[in-house]
Specification:
With about 270 residues, the chain is an alpha+beta fold. It contains 13 helices and twelve strands.
Amino acid sequence: MRLYCEDKQSLYDLQTKAAFAPVMNFLLGNPNCTLRQLTAEFPEKSFIKYLESCIQVGWIKRENRRYSIALPIYGVKEYQEVAQSLAITQLRTELMALAPAELADVCQNVMSAQPERAYFVNGDFPLGEFHHGGLPCELQVFSISTQETSQDLAGFFEANRHLAEPVVYQELRELIGDVDEEYYFQQVQWILSRVIKERPQKASIFLESLKLTGVLAEEKLQVPYLRRITEKTSLIDKITGLNYWELTILLGSLVEKEEKGLFQWFYKEK
């Protein structure tokens, strides 16, 4: 069972504990269980402390000495109901009719304005996840994807902020290491400004990282270098009216239709 929640280091640390999945799956199969049942299943000394932490952040509910999951749980049935609903299918059709750069701009505006809300997902279906990196009000890179990919530069820095090291980013990590995010994007901004002006580049790990992640190929920019171009305010209003569960389904279906490669973009604010 997966948890989608706000991007906070403390919550991420709780989620990455080895006990997380076993505890949540046990509660899913044993609603309103007692502490005795839990400690019989999880006899480790650290369990009670972990249980209390999950109660404190609102993932687990304790009521009348009974324990259960406190957050909404969505499964295949709920996913199909939303994915096939008229509102989502109409929005998907409208979004697919946009030019790629405009579609990326719409998605970036929507996702950056709406933080995640915590809920559990029980099942395997394509939900869109938003990753970002870069410099405030300057060069930004963001992606919307349904799974980790080695070319997702935004996902790499998202993982770095959580001190996570997914294997999929190993080659990129070996190239640029634990480089400071701000310094990295300062160097990248300089490189891209020269690429756009068709000026020659000097060899560097930053240049190689852009090639490795598919941003550059043969010294040419392969992803849009965007400014705010969206005039689809009515469309954005419709999308921001969705709850986060509906939004992740909508964006996940768009990514799937575009073969997982559409939503990896550089973005430059005015």
